[in-house]
């Protein structure tokens, strides 16, 4: 997809996060307390990223989980990891493996079953509910 197409398809806020690697304000995201079953897809290209079963409960997690929707596992091959040394921090950036859009960051998390959690921006995601869940 060309940059112009992303611009047309996405809202300004979505574009800012997905294509300019922004971060939505904590506790602002619509999927923070989302509990429906389904698959979270990339907002920019529709690539399936996370199953709802991997979503962590943001209301009772440790500090790192609070404020953004988080997952302990991505679907196989759905995301790519990149080193991110911006903002004076050493972090692992998570991008969509299909379109390269920024999704969030991956953090070590001793409380997660995988030892890691994916801290995602709600604006980068779209939930495809399972039938009967809508
Ligand atoms: Zn994508």
Features:
134 residues, 3-stranded antiparallel beta sheet, alpha+beta, single chain, binds zinc ion, Metal Binding Protein, Guanine Nucleotide Exchange Factor, Chain A, 5-stranded antiparallel beta sheet, 2 helices
What does this structure look like?
34% of the residues are buried. The chain has a single domain (3-129), classed as Peptide methionine sulfoxide reductase (Metal Binding Protein, Guanine Nucleotide Exchange Factor, Chain A, Beta Complex). The chain is of the alpha+beta class and 134 residues long. The longest helix is centred in the N-terminal third of the chain and has 9 residues, at 12-20. The protein has two helices and eight strands, in the order ααββββββββ. The strands form two sheets. A five-stranded antiparallel β-sheet has the order 3-7-6-5-4. Strands 2-1-8 form a three-stranded antiparallel β-sheet, with no helix packed on it. It binds zinc ion. Zinc ion is lined by residues 42, 44-45, 47, 96, 98-99, 101.
């Amino acid at each position: 997809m060309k940059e112009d197409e992303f611009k047309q398809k996405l809202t300004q806020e979505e574009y800012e996060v997905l294509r300019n690697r922004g971060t939505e304000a904590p506790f602002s995201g619509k999927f923070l307390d989302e509990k429906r079953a389904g698959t979270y897809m990339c907002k920019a290209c529709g690539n399936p990223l996370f199953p709802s079963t991997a979503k962590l409960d943001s209301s009772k997690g440790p500090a790192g989980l609070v404020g953004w929707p988080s997952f302990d596992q991505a679907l196989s091959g759905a995301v790519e990891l990149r080193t991110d040394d911006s903002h004076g921090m050493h972090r692992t950036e998570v991008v969509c493996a299909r379109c390269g859009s920024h999704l969030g960051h991956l953090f070590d998390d001793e409380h997660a079953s995988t030892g890691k959690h994916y801290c995602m921006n709600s604006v980068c995601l779209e939930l495809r509910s399972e039938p009967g869940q809508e």
